[in-house]
Each structure stands twice: as C-alpha cells, then as structure tokens.
Amino acid sequence: MSEQEYSPPSQQELDQLTGEIAALIKYQRRHYMVNKTLYIALISFSIIGSGIIALAGFADQGIIAAILGVAVGISVGLQDAFAYSEKAEFKAIIVTAAINLQTDVKFKIKSREAFDRAIDQLKSLHLYAWQNIPRGQGIEAAATLKLEMSNPTQSTPGTLPETR
Q: Is the pTM of this model over 0.90?
C-alpha cells in the first residue's frame, strides 16, 4: 500500500472536497427556490382565481368566470404535472444532507479513510438526488386535463371538471 493511503488528506484535498459540496448545495438551493416559487405562485393564483370566479358568478359575468375557470384548471394541472412542492421539499432535504456532510468534512476528517468515506457519501448524495427527485405526473397529467376540459358533459356549466 502506498504512503498516501495512510496519510491524512492534505488541506488542498479537503478544500477541493468542500468546494464540491458547496457547489452541490448552491445548485440544489437554486432549484429549491425555483420550485418553491413556482409552487407558491400556482397555489396563490388558484386561490385568488377561485375567489374571483365566485365574485364573477355573483356579478353575472359568466365569460370572466369561464376564462378564469380554465386558467385555474390549468394551474391545478401544472401542480399535478410537475410536483413543484414535492421537488422543493426534496431539494431542501438534499441541501440539509450536503450541509451536514460539509460540516463533517470541516471538523471530522482526520484520516484518509474518513476522507474516502466522505467522497463516497458525496457521490451517493449526487446519485440519490438524481434518481429520486419527485417526477410528478408529467405529460400524463396534461393529457388528463385536456380530456377533462374537452368533455363538458362531465361538469356543470360554469364550473371546472373535478381534478384528482
């Protein structure tokens, strides 16, 4: 076995590993913010749109209610199709795990074996983040929404078809 296998990692190696972890944290945080923002925007639009639909109905503005009804239906469909909330939560979990790993690297790495384990943990975290991200229903949800919107016999005039 070589001397490097028994020697503790150099400061340069620790800095490189810390930099890799920081890059993962930055990437995952950015995606967390995008998904969280989209989720909040869609939910807010759906809630406000639903209220305006009710007000338009009371004011006998059927056209406005119908247009907003379609828009709210699309908003709900987008939430199902792309799972923004679930993705944001998943990204937050990945960020937390990466921060924990970063802390371990800064304070616990004293041996080559611990350094190698940290590298393996980082690789596993990358793989887990890629393989397990919530996928939503994707195009399947869009097709279902289109079918429901194109079949008005399943809904009462002026209302949206039920969504799942």
A: no
